[in-house]
Amino acid sequence: MFVTTALLFSGLLAGFTNGLLGTGGGIILVFALKTLYKDKNIKDVFATSLAVILALSAVSVIVYLKKNNLPSQESLRFLLPAAFGGFTGAYFLDKINANWLKKVFGALIIIAGLNMTGIFG
Amino acid sequence: MIVDVIAGIFISILSGMGVGGGGLLVLYLVFIRNMEQPSAQGLNLLFFIAASFSALIYHFKKRKIDKRLLLLLIIPGIIGAVLGSLLANVIDPLLIRKIFGWLSVTSGMVVLFSKK
Q: Helices in chain B by DSSP H: which ranges?
């Protein structure tokens, strides 16, 4: 019962975050699933999270579209690269140790994020 | 335009490898292409769908995905998604940007200070 409630809440939160910020739902779901299903294979967790966020992103896209916040002209040039890159990246996921890359981009994201918060004016 | 395509490839490969989470494109669009925050997010969602679709087909065949679990997450998720998306398109873009900024800082720190 607790697990069911926790799952429902996690789904709600993940969808909300994903819709509000255009990203981030996956982090919440992976964390929730790893916590609630300690023995589950992490790859199954990722796959489940991916499937859910895919569906929720589709829903959010429709709302953004109706609110005229989906720049259709710009979108097209990114979609094919996305399909190509997503597949290619997933292929490399198991083959390359990207830890140093993650750290580099982690730092970059912090800097960019700090800029966005506006605390530096 | 060609820069966008190259950036798109680069970013989606990184995301596929688990680098940078889902927000890299938003950062690119906002900082380099000067796009408005809500529009950048909308595009990012579409981008994610395109990037993940093929990955998901692969996963569905190889991995065990519990259908009941999917429903338990997706159904409330849809409610959340509608609420969150509506909010994103209604409140001040500057506020959304700030929230996004704080999320970015937090996730960046988690990555930097994680044990591996």
A: 2-16, 24-27, 37-62, 67-90, 93-112
Q: CA neighbours within 13 Å on the CB side: how many for A66?
A: 10
Entry pTM: 0.90
**A contact test, residue of B73, B78, B86, B106 with most A CBs within 10 A:** B73
The Cα angle at residue A13 between residues A11 and B102, in degrees rounded to 5: 140
The residue among A37, A91, A45 whose CA lies nearest residue B65 is A45
Question: Which of helix, strand or coil describes residue A100?
Answer: helix
Distance separating alpha carbons of residues A66 and A64, to the nearest angstrom: 5
Q: Which residue in A51, A93, A106 is closest to B112 by CB distance?
A: A106
Confidence of residue A89 (pLDDT cuts 50, 70, 90): confident
ipTM here: 0.90
For chain B, how far is it from start to end, CA to CA, in angstroms? 37
Spatial separation of the C-alpha atoms in residues B104 and B37, rounded to whole Å: 14
- Partners of residue A81 in chain B, C-beta under 8 Å: 5-9, 12
Residue A20 sits at the chain B interface (C-beta within 8 Å): yes
User: Which of A11, A81, A84 shows the shortest C-beta gap to B72?
Assistant: A11
Which residue is listed with tokens 């998901």? B56
